[in-house]
Amino acid sequence: MDRRGLTIGVAALSVVALVFAVLALHHASGLTQAAAATPPSFPAALSATSVPVVSASATTTSKSTPTATPSASSSVPARPVVAFLGDGYIGGDGATSRALRWTTLVSADFGWTEKNFAYGGTGYSTGGKQPGGIPYTARVATLAAARPSIVIVAGGRYDIQSSNGPTQINAGVTATFTALRAALPNATIIAENPLWSSTKPPVTLALVTADVQAAVAAVDGRYLDIGQPLVGAPTDVASNRALPNDAGYAALAKAFETAYNS
Length: 262
What we know:
Number of domains: 1
Largest sheet: 5 strands, parallel
Structural class: alpha/beta
Shape: globular
Helix content: 40-55%
Distance between the termini: 140 Å
């Protein structure tokens, strides 16, 4: 090859080398820019998005055992269900409002849920003369369905005013408390002494009182003697009815609460 051809060849190789050098420099520059634009990644557990920002309140909560907020039903103790069984003195006959009968007054004072199973003119052994009246024993099943924790029984005046004799009355008293205990084995059973109105009680009332006292003791109940708050207090009795008025029921409520708490 002559000198001229050699020169041309060298020049061509130089151009090619220069082109490759330029391309190499451009590629290196692109890699450098890419590296600068893409920051190094953190391990997943330490990345900024995986580390929560915890407030002071949250920190306090996380270090303590969560405590459930009590609902209204769990924070307020359940009111005991108390069933009353008796005659018109239990039902509030003679009062201007059922809210003023002694059972309701006492229930409000003691925080009880009252269930009242009274019927005027009835007794342990008699359904009385009013239509639909039945003796106490016939109401035990309905009363027990209310699932009371306390049962309070009162009455007796209409038993001695009925045609039933002492034997029949005693049987009715005994049957009442026996049935209550069988139906409610865990309930507290309380018997209140038979009450009278403002006049002097007859001797026969004492016989019923003795029957009630013995019968409730036989079923592990409690006998509660509240005395005779209405005797000698005619202003506490409704006119012409021999039943308590509002003042009379207030007196009965006070007497019951005093005896109950003693």
